[in-house]
């Protein structure tokens, strides 16, 4: 009986991964085609010993490499399955492939597999990484590689597709257990992605797929990418990291998972944004001499240093003014701005509640409303983390001193006005039992960070417009 599908595998120095993948598809009796991009280890000999059809082609990027493979291998089966060498077919998927019949899928052109991604031996289950569907199996004459992508590769098929939710592939690059390899690889990827985004700004690249939030997994990705390109650079990595960690529960992936989400969602995206600015500035240099190529990097470094300085200074000062081993009576009694802010917030809440007809009383830390409830203002309630983030960004940004001071003061007042509103709502309506399920601190911080990012975006846009007009 002739085979129904063939495997196509891309390799480059995969002597540790290729035997693992080949072993996982043993017994499926499917032809194997391997496109190598100049391996210097034992990859080629492993492929030859396995009886695979082998071709060599210089690597430029993944979409072009896959396009070469689909156009140059002599595929005789109606279906192809395209895998990377660091992927493995699970027994569940192997069983689905064993039972696969072309006649049962006459009206289907593509099949999505469900991926489990591993980093340093840990399954990254949250943060949007599972379930994660990849179009890996499609009709040979129907599917093609999307050349409008420079780094992310995907296959496109017209017509109907289906998802095998239980058909898993395991993706684990053992070379990434060395963090230097991961960083070097993503540094190269950031070059490709930055150039791609600049080309999209210049309308030199278009999306092949129609973005659709409710469409196939790849159409949904296209929609999210379109949204991503509209977000302000440098701010979007912060937003994306918070979104993955909180809304997509990335924090549940443990220490290793949190490191992965930080590197992949924040560090990598921030490097891409820096390189985008470098590319834009290098293009501007061709017409204007004296442009500063490193301003974006300097801004990021200034911002991070200021944020860390403000954030940890507040924590240090709180420790010095709180009873304990390092308590400083002079600071606590004469220079305690933390207690001063707490007292101001409590006083404002009390006055507003009394004006609203409630009976409110306060002490040094607490707010109580007769017949309603009580709250205690601990350090995390005061908003110093939010203020540190906001102030560091504004100070680091190249604008006039007068504009920065005015914006910082206005921003701090706005943050604390919203904080007062939160305290009033909490003391009047908060159900403490619900607090065990929903953390109002987290919700408030997420909302405020989003509002801060939006306000910073429009402020930066206004300042850039004014600078360009002046120039």
From TrEMBL:
Membrane topology, from the record: Multi-pass membrane protein
Subcellular location: Cell membrane
Record Pfam families: Exosortase_EpsH, Glycos_transf_2
InterPro entries: Exo/Archaeosortase_dom, Exosortase, Glyco_trans_2-like, Nucleotide-diphossugar_trans
Tagged with keyword Transmembrane helix: yes
SUPFAM superfamilies found in the cross-reference section: Nucleotide-diphospho-sugar transferases
Record carries keyword Transmembrane: yes
Record's keyword terms, sorted: Cell membrane, Hydrolase, Membrane, Protease, Transmembrane, Transmembrane helix
Transmembrane segments: 234-252, 299-320, 374-399, 405-430, 442-460
Record CDD domains: Beta4Glucosyltransferase (cd02511)
Domain Glycosyltransferase 2-like: 6-127
Highest taxon in the source lineage: Bacteria
PANTHER family the UniProt entry points to: GLYCOSYLTRANSFERASE, POLY-BETA-1,6-N-ACETYL-D-GLUCOSAMINE SYNTHASE
Protein family: Belongs to the glycosyltransferase 2 family. WaaE/KdtX subfamily.
The protein, known as: Exosortase/archaeosortase family protein
Lineage of the species this protein comes from: Bacteria, Pseudomonadati, Bacteroidota, Sphingobacteriia, Sphingobacteriales
